[in-house]
């Protein structure tokens, strides 16, 4: 069994084994003609059920053959130009190389004595990102597992900085289309069930600052404590960017922590043409960035940034075995002092490799391309009477729905759109997402693949219209 351990004597096995895996994936990527096979849960589950984990195959090639059956054949492939569903990007090769290196070396970023250069590389990338955000000289941060964790940690810091002895009085303000992790975080932080105040959005799905001011006022008048405002820079559904300068103004007026959730919009930090859309982000107390959404990085790669490094102390605990207090005096950089996690992946290496090979402008170019494509898609949708499109994109999502020519019952329109999404998924021809706007069912394209073209968009819209019409035709037949 020792031959399976990665060490000085097994370099050849390592090379052969990993190369064999890479060859399979490369062949798969080349041969994928649809984003999905459309397989149903009930058809895939038995193949996985059948495998007896207590009877190993002892042969890498055989295991890779098996993996083809249980995973690779029917995976959902984000690199395919007709995968248009969620905030999943195709990944860049330098980052995948970084992933291979980091898992083989297997550094853990909690302490210096488990990572050395890894710690310094992560710190430099945090500084680099902070420079782009403009958070100032005392800024700091840490890599996290994702935007949800970054938001949780930001709100933890905000809760502690609010210095209230009664958590039931704390209030968080976030727009009605902010990410659900805000509410989940409030619950994890022991805040009351009504702690998150939902602020209405305008026609473009941006937080209404007049309403925010009103809510902040009301909060004070009711003797409650405003703990944080969460501004979203790139809402998950619409890509809308809350008015950051006005929100920053209100936060300083009311003395409230300003958190910017830029999990999605952070891609603009590398854009040469559209960076100004993030104007005002530099006034935040904390920022969430998800490199695994708009920097073309493999999952996971994310960070929490803070304006003032001192605020990270709220996540600091010392353990004798790991990061004793004296190490702080000895100036030994232990990232665990800043993190909610202990053992932690060296995800930063992927971004490092990406920046060293492609440069930041390279990422920005790719992100600009998908934003341009969304703009083009919006024009296509707006000109097509079969569809209703919700907002003109600030980033790269399009929310729309099919409006059949003959039907007037809104429930039928909802059902037709739901059906079209499901039918498309089952066909494997394309994958799109869905969401609700008000009470109504909509469809969504999240465009993160620069290989997707306007022709892909047109073709997928035709498929959607076809499925919706077919559904309505059949259900009307049934009704008559
Ligand atoms: C995706 C997203 C999150 C959550 O990030 P994960 O990396 O999925 O945990 C938070 N906020 C916004 C706006 C997002 O789009």
From TrEMBL:
Which Pfam family, an example, fits this chain? Pyridoxal_deC
Q: State if Lyase is listed as a keyword.
A: yes
UniProt keywords, alphabetically: Decarboxylase, Lyase, Pyridoxal phosphate
Q: Which InterPro entries match?
A: Aromatic_deC, PyrdxlP-dep_de-COase, PyrdxlP-dep_Trfase, PyrdxlP-dep_Trfase_major, PyrdxlP-dep_Trfase_small
Give the protein's cofactors: pyridoxal 5'-phosphate
**Gene3D superfamilies according to UniProt:** Aspartate Aminotransferase, domain 1, PLP-dependent transferases, Type I PLP-dependent aspartate aminotransferase-like (Major domain)
Family (UniProt): Belongs to the group II decarboxylase family.
The protein depicted here goes by the name Lysine decarboxylase DesA
